[in-house]
Amino acid sequence: MGVPVTGYGREGDTEPLPAAIAATPSGGSWLAWLGTDSRVYLGKLGCDDRLVGTPTSFAGIDLQDVQADSNGGVLLLTRRGDCGDGPLCGGSSSPCNTMHMIRFDNSGQLVWERQVTNLSDTRTGYDNGARFVWWYQHHGRLASDGANYAAYFGVAITVQNGNCVDIHQGDRMQVVNAGGALVAGHRDSFEVGCSHSWGTRIVWDPRTSRFAMVCATDNACRIAQPNPYRTVAAGTCDGTLFGGDLVLASTSGYWTAWSQGGQVRLEHFTTGASDTTVSTAARSSHPHLVSYGTGRMLLTWESGTAMAAQVYDAGTGTAVGAQFTIDVRDHDFQAFKAYADGSAAYPAAGSTSTSIRIARVMPIP
């Protein structure tokens, strides 16, 4: 990549994400990665998954996601913010950072940027009503309806408590239009959804013309749909409850991957409780799930120093073919992305601190 890439480190859900990838309509990719210099880098990849041209970069202390369209794409990243004076009622909750969408064109140049938290010159993190990004679970994902982009991410919530403020944690979904303006009152957006929340995942469903979301939450310890709460799968708050990814089913509804006690499950649901549960052979805390070709989905998980993978039918949840190995290092919170040719790609750690290795699972008949 020509510059150092942030390493995998401890891979915790409060740690920075090293890289993200997005499929372009032309068959190539946009690759985003977090440098070690408080910059998020963006490079274009050809159909051979190799870098084309010179990367651009944007100020950012954490990378969340990248999505692409025919005119370029959008980055979701975190920047430094201001906590203000408080005072806190107790404890510590810094830093008070901000989340931003960065719109770029087909040259990787800035078109517009929009904060999707709500800090400003007159509202700091310790002001009542603030929504900011802190040390606690704060990762997010993007989705697009073809015109607007939606960001769904973990957020800190500031609440007045007498002469001081308390900081709570939940999640937030905001929609930004093609011109870079927040879409006020979008029917799927919300100030706060799940609380406490982690594993926030979002997908656009063209069949219902809605953004669908799931979270993992200690509110009744479950995998849930936010705003309003609807239980998808019941879990246990024992420190082993984690959400995976969310994809469209080939019929109606959705599939989500999640893990409890190291056992990975697939759940099919529409607008509430799961109607199909698949107990997989995967033993992992952090599964990855991605749409894969027509009517299939790909489940992957950490297996030693590599990744294991299994294809499933996106209608029935039945396994397709045998389990196989992908010879790259897994990261708990990075994601595979689907491509129009039926393949799926993942940005993995390279052999040096300045390289990224792209793993691509090619389409099958």
Task: Describe what this molecule looks like in 3D.
With 365 residues, the protein is an all-beta fold. It has a domain at 201-217 and 238-333: Neuraminidase (6 Propeller), CATH 2.120.10.30. Helix content is 0%, strand content 51%. It is built from no helices and 27 strands. It has strands spanning 19-23, 29-34, 39-45, 51-59, 62-69, 72-79, 98-104, 110-115, 131-132, 140-144, 149-161, 164-176, 197-205, 210-217, 222-225, 230-234, 242-248, 254-260, 263-269, 276-283, 288-291, 296-303, 306-313, 319-326, 337-338, 344-349, 356-361. The strands form 7 sheets. The protein has a 4-stranded antiparallel β-sheet, with no helix packed on it. A 4-stranded antiparallel β-sheet has the order 5-6-7-8, with no helix packed on it. The relative contact order is 0.12. The mean pLDDT is 96.
